[in-house]
Amino acid sequence: MKVEKELVDxxxxxxxxxxxxxxxxxxxxxxxxxxxxxxKMREFRVFFTSRKTLLNEFNHFEGNMNIFxxxxxxxxxxxxxxxxxxxxxxxxxxxxxxx
Length: 99
Hints:
The structure is a single chain. By secondary structure, the protein is mainly α. The chain has one domain (2-98). The chain is 58% helix and 6% strand. The chain has a two-stranded antiparallel sheet with strand order 1-2.
């Protein structure tokens, strides 16, 4: 929820229009290819989209209605590294948007 809140705050989005993390990511980093910030915005969008499963604590369907397994298998140290990278990226985005 922290990432959603941060993105909504940074980009002044209206979360009532968006119910899923992917919608927030797509709206926050939307820009035209002709925009001078296009490459950076695309980098941010790819970063968060690639971590969507981790951010959502998503469970995926394994073909049997009774069997759900975590979509990620991650050690505590790897999880901490991801958390740190996500927090650093949010700081980078704030700085980028303020410049």
